[in-house]
UniProtKB/TrEMBL annotation:
This is Uncharacterized protein. The lineage of its organism: Eukaryota, Fungi, Dikarya, Ascomycota, Pezizomycotina. InterPro entries: RraA/RraA-like (IPR005493), RraA/RraA-like_sf (IPR036704). CDD domains: RraA_family. PANTHER family: 4-HYDROXY-4-METHYL-2-OXOGLUTARATE ALDOLASE, 4-HYDROXY-4-METHYL-2-OXOGLUTARATE ALDOLASE 3-RELATED. It comes from the Eukaryota. It holds the Pfam family RraA-like.
Length: 226
């Protein structure tokens, strides 16, 4: 369940902004999450392709597409009109091999106007140049051309934990951080435990980097600072 505090007021979101996706993954590994919350195969496409200092941090607003023969009813309204400010739009599909794009430029236009910080598409998206002209962050598996409507329908919006094409479970309100390294999901229940671990790890790594640059071996620096 998403927290009552808005993303713009959430102290955890503010704290996470100083860290990278790798920092989050390191902390989650220490908390017993072997994959570190990493979403494999999803990379940055906009505003640049795997370049620059773009970072998105916010609670997940989850959207699930499914084939038309799925027994669930089509969602009665368009999900993009209910995106909360400060959130990360996360779109996935139960179809394991969708060739149709799940997301397009008009969705980003509306999301940006609503104050969303970026979108993560667990599948294909389209209108790449339009996305870049908006300066809106999009992370996805790949690009496509055809819209989802002919083969897929939205069946769930921000109301249940999902897995989609990724093996990582994502619940509405879980924290999503995306940067040039990739996208990770930090479960809300682990956030307060993970943050101190990130702080400690970053401090240790900074000290290691200084000493390694001076000639100390990695093994020695690791033993001394970690």
């Amino acid at each position: 369940m998403a927290a009552a505090t808005s993303a713009s007021e959430d102290p955890i979101v503010e704290a996470l902004r100083q860290y990278t996706s790798c920092d989050v993954a390191d902390a989650l590994v220490k908390l017993g999450v072997p994959d570190g919350g990493f979403l494999p195969g999803i990379t940055m496409w906009s505003p640049q392709r795997q370049d620059g200092d773009t970072k998105i941090v916010g609670p997940a607003y989850t959207v699930v597409y499914a084939p038309h023969d799925d027994p669930r009813s089509k969602w009665p309204s368009h999900y993009i009109d209910a995106v909360p400010a400060g959130s990360v739009v996360f779109v996935t599909s139960t179809d394991r091999t969708p060739s149709n794009a799940l997301y397009g430029g008009l969705m980003s236009t509306r999301a940006k106007a609503s104050g969303a910080v970026g979108s993560v598409i667990d599948g294909r998206f389209r209108d790449l140049q339009e996305q870049r002209e908006l300066g809106y962050p999009v992370f996805a598996r790949d690009v496509g051309t055809a819209p989802p409507g002919p083969v897929l329908k939205v069946v769930a919006v921000n109301n249940e934990p999902i897995r989609g094409l990724c093996s990582v479970e994502i619940a509405p309100g879980d924290y999503v951080l995306g940067d040039v390294n990739g996208v990770v999901v930090l479960p809300r229940a682990l956030a307060e435990k993970a943050l101190p671990l990130m702080e400690k790890q970053v401090e240790a790594d900074s000290k290691m980097a200084v000493e390694i640059a001076k000639g100390m071996s990695f093994a020695e620096a690791s033993k001394k600072f970690r």
